[in-house]
User: Which sequence fits this backbone?
């Protein structure tokens, strides 16, 4: 449920951004909007991996491994 909440929050925030109104210098390392979206996606992927590892340490297997 928390992971779904995080994805929803991220998607909502990204959907509100109008790329035409962004100032390239305001983005991290002066990168373009598509790269920022890829960075956010990659970060979320890392959190998913952490959640899976934590669940497995508690003896909870992800549904796809059953």
Assistant:
């Amino acid at each position: 449920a928390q992971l779904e909440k995080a994805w929803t929050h991220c998607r909502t925030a990204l959907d509100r951004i109008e790329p035409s109104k962004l100032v390239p210098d305001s983005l991290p390392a002066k990168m373009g909007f598509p790269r920022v979206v890829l960075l956010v996606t990659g970060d979320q992927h890392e959190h998913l991996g952490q959640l899976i590892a934590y669940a497995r340490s508690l003896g909870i297997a992800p549904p796809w491994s059953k």
User: Anything to note?
Assistant: The chain is about 60% helix and 0% strand.
